[in-house]
Amino acid sequence: MSHPEYPYNGNEIAVIGMAGRFPQSENLEAFWQNLTGGKECISHYSSRELEEAGIDPGILSQPNYVRAKGEIGQLDAFDAAFFGINPKDAELMDPQHRMMLECAWEALEHAGYQSADCGSSMGVFVGKSMSSYLFLNLFPHIQKCWPPAICRLPSAMTRTVWLQRSPIA
Fold it and tell me: How many C-beta atoms lie closer than 10 Å to residue 57's C-beta?
């Protein structure tokens, strides 16, 4: 169908499948049910629970500290073999990256496509937020193994590259 106010230019796309994970919503259908049902999906914690989790009491006493978090489950359920990823590499991989791969595959399934049977061009647009996983979970362990002068260089280079590039997938 042609719309004179929006003429075709050859760059049109069709969104035919979607996938996502959200707090207390393992997929888009659950997210929509929670949204329309007015369900609060953010987890709230007491000071005791946070102290038991290792949060410094000094931080907890700050008036701007938020005792809530949007948690997404099943981060440990990644099927590395399905994606052809070595289990050890998958263990080190950012959990957001693992989830992004799962959601990309789910979006294709939601659209009713199998990449091997498509016969034409197909793409999946994905997005995720900036993650501190590399800096908080991997670099501290790497830096323990390297001489101090060498440690600073990769860290500084990575920060520079990540700050100069927009993460678009």
Answer: 9
Evaluate whether 19 touches 103 at the Cβ level (below 8 Å).
yes
Q: Give the three-class secondary structure for 121.
A: coil
120, 25 Cβ separation under 8 angstroms:
no
Using CA atoms, how far residue 18 sits from 9, 37, 147, in Å, is 24, 21, 46
CA 135, distance to chain mean position in Å, is 16
More confident residue, 145 or 47: 47
What amino acid is encoded at 26 in this protein? E
Place of tokens 């590499």: 89
- pLDDT tens per residue, range 129-150: 777 777 777 666 665 555 544 4
d(CA 21, CA 103): 8
CA angle (159, 165, 169) in 5-degree steps: 120
CB 85 within 8 A of CB 91: no
Beta-carbon contacts of residue 114 (< 8 Å; ≥ 6 apart): 108
DSSP string, 125-136: --------HIII
